[in-house]
């Protein structure tokens, strides 16, 4: 946790960049995901959570 606190300014810049480009990032990610999913797959109400922890990834019915 201390390493995350030390990198707070860097993380803030990263998160600001994501927020600024959120719709473009989301559109690109959905476009790529659709190549592997059935046509009826829906992305409405799908959430992505960013957690500043090393090597942490999780996906379930609530989001990624």
Strand content: under 5%
Helix content: 40-55%
Overall strand count? 0
Total helical elements: 3
Walk me through what this model shows.
With 64 residues, this protein is mainly α. Helices cover 48% and strands 0% of the residues. The chain has three helices and no strands. The longest helix has 13 residues, at 8-20.
Task: Give a short summary of the structure.
The protein has helices at 2-6, 8-20, 22-34. The chain has 64 residues and is mainly α. The relative contact order is 0.12.
Task: Give the topology.
Layout: H1 2-6, H2 8-20, H3 22-34
Keywords, separated by commas or semicolons:
single chain; 64 residues; mainly alpha; 3 helices; 48% helix; 0% strand; elongated
